[in-house]
What we know:
Shape: globular
Strand content: 5-15%
Helix content: 40-55%
Structural class: alpha/beta
Radius of gyration: 17 Å
Number of strands: 5
CATH topology: Protein-Tyrosine Phosphatase, Chain A
Amino acid sequence: MRRVEFEGSFNFRDLGGWRTGDGREVRWGRLFRADSVHLLTDADVERAVGEVGIRTMVDLRSTAEIEAGGVGALAQRVADRQHLPVTSRGPVPIDAPRAVANPDRSPTRMFEQYAAMLEVSGAVIARAVERLAGADALPGVFFCAAGKDRTGVLAAVVLGALGVRDDDIIEDYVLTGASMEQLIGRFASIAAAPDLYRSYPPSHFAPYAETMDRLLAHVRERYGSFAAYLRANGVSAATLDRLAAQLVG
């Protein structure tokens, strides 16, 4: 029951249960990844606050996306909303509905984009992790438009910093594939969206295990680990310990 069913968000998932290298696992019901949380209906918001208990939302969308789509009703109910836009290069994120109409979604291109996100948005990613490690932050959710690319990179960083096994990080990434039909259908319904969302089947945009596998290898080669990547971007060892204490049991 990893996916939380909402009317307005199709890719809202619990990060609990993933296994660490030392035999522990991420706690359930503490941290979630998602798509388009700003589109939650009023009924969704009541469940998100009352049942799921969301206290913090980290919005990875660009300023332009927020101006076009708003912050949503949940933003008025949570204790803290953080706007931390993650990008790779240029002003328009790769999974935004108004993204540049580049049809290439191959593992090679997506790996290159993800690696660029880690470099260009290192300080932003670090701030997201610091906020999620806060004593009063959880349960929390971080999200972008589709919950695949920007969200997928942050999920990999968080899980990797917690010591989650590579196989589980990859599996978490590819699970977005189960929601692609709904996600691309929503993008295709937006008049200003590029034609590629209507010209290509949802499978064209699906996540590939190879993409995340290459990103994990890249981080290990360049930094040694995701924890070392975060430390290089200013996250303290104490913050990483606090994050692990709250999320790993």
